[in-house]
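User: TIGR03915 family putative DNA repair protein, Ruminococcus turbiniformis:
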Amino acid sequence: MKQIYVCTDTITGLYSALHDAWKENRDGDAGVEIRGHVQHQLFCEYQAVEETSQKAFRLERMIKRYLGYNACWDIYHALLSDNPQKGNAVFHAMQESRKLKDSRRIMEHLGNEDVANVFAMSRSVANEAHVYEEFIRFRELKNGILFSEISPKAQVLTCIGDHFSDRFPLENWLIFDKTHQVSLVHRKQSRWELVWGELPDGEAVEDLSDDERDYEELWRCFFESVSVKERENPRCQRGHLPLRYRDNMPEFQEKGCLTGKIRL
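Assistant: Predicted structure for TIGR03915 family putative DNA repair protein:
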């Protein structure tokens, strides 16, 4: 009977599920499903996974040893995607690597559907993370914390943590992922960390510093002053800055800017 390992949509959960699936069914027919996205099938046995950091560490170490660091990086990014079948794709790609003479070249084996899916998911997550490194806007709160909200498709916070930590090492800042309800928190001169299950205080994040309000107004005035009506091209603007990113950007939150009325 096919074994289906059910886990949460986190790196620890998925790594733990892959660990158990590999340990118990590396040569058999098995699958990894995300809790809340399970599609029940006939002749399958569903097993809830015990999620531990030890399992995640062992799986990551095994992947680095036998598949290489590049494959480990691609698998990690793929498991951050919003594709509910990502666990199955990674597990079957790992099984496919056993058929190769050099398992470290597994990500070159794009003729295999599962390997191609892992590669595509990894590239999609990396691209989205790169976009957010450019589009994230921080707002200074009255308590001095720099705050930003984003709505990504994938779980990109761990991909952008080092970037903003390097840019603002002496600042206290927080990036809240509204899609996955998780925060990336950085304390000055410390390493960033993820905080799950705690939502930012709605009143606190709207209580902006006086300087922040002044700078936001100056920024909007700058947008208006450099715009040329005759050269307005909303289609080109959307190509450079898609609409789905604008809801969390201060310069696009007033005066109908969400519809692309600011001219560039």
